[in-house]
Amino acid sequence: RCTSKDRELVKHEAEKNKSQWKTMGPAKVAVPSPNDFLQKQPKEPKLAPKKKEQDVKRLLPLLPPRTYHPVIHIKKNFIKKNAVAVITGEPKKPRHFCVDTRHGDKYLLEPSGLFPKYIKKKNYGAIPKCVTRRKEEMKREEEEYQASVLEQLKKKAMKALSEEERTNILKALKKKWEKIHCAYQCLPVLTDTAYKRMHKEELELELKQLEHDIAAIEKHKTIYIADV
After folding, report:
1. 3-state DSSP helix/strand/coil percent for the chain, to nearest 5?
2. Biased composition, Basic and acidic residues: where in the chain (predicted)?
């Protein structure tokens, strides 16, 4: 049978630490002394012992020397000082009152809301900074979006028609529209057969498509052609 070579060491370590978890606290507690018995009111605070008269005399301050001269404070004339402050001070502005009853009941006009103090502010009617900042951010975002759109168009290799090509295409579409319109006017008034009705519907569809293309080219000055 296989036996570990550390078997005896493990047994020794287990028996060595075996008594550590048997009790809570120290294994051996000293027996209390009979002199340490509970007394009456042992936890109340005790006053300090009274000082003797000799100790009080020692704590008295010493007399100043003969060469000591105390600082003499100059007396202030507060009546004169207050009079000068009143004479040189700015007069108080009269406060606006409003009397609303015949008995003379009055109240201050400024905090009542009847005094136009807000329209007299320096920043009254001015656009707040947050609104201006938001408009600038929106404008910058729009410029960045337009730049990104142009960059995407450049990446897709879309070709922009020149003004001469746009004019030539527009002239060709109008010329074709006149030709089909002339053929449409030459149709008979009475469409009594299926061929006549189909031919009329085809001409109307072509005229409608040509009108849509002409309006789109006239509306947009810059036209891009995708490289398919």
Report:
1. 45, 5, 50
2. 1-18, 41-53
Tokens coding 62: 């010493």
Q: Provide the H-helix boundaries in 75-128.
A: 78-88
Contact 109, 96 (CB under 8 A): yes
Please report the pLDDT score of residue 141 as a whole number. 94
Global pTM value: 0.32
Q: What is the pLDDT of residues 50-88, one digit of tens each?
A: 766 666 566 666 777 888 887 777 788 889 999 999 899
Q: Are 207 and 180 in contact (CB under 8 A)?
A: yes
Q: Which amino acid type is present at position 49? A: P
pLDDT in tens, 116-165: 878 888 888 888 899 999 999 999 999 999 999 888 777 766 677 788 88
For 55, 82, 167, the CA distances from 159, given in Å and listed in that order, are 111, 89, 16
Q: Which residues contact 180 (CB under 8 A, 6 or more apart)?
A: 203, 206, 207, 210
Q: What is the DSSP string of 153-206?
A: HHHTTPEEPPHHHHHHHHHHHHHHHHHHHHHHHTS-S---SHHHHHHHHHHHHH
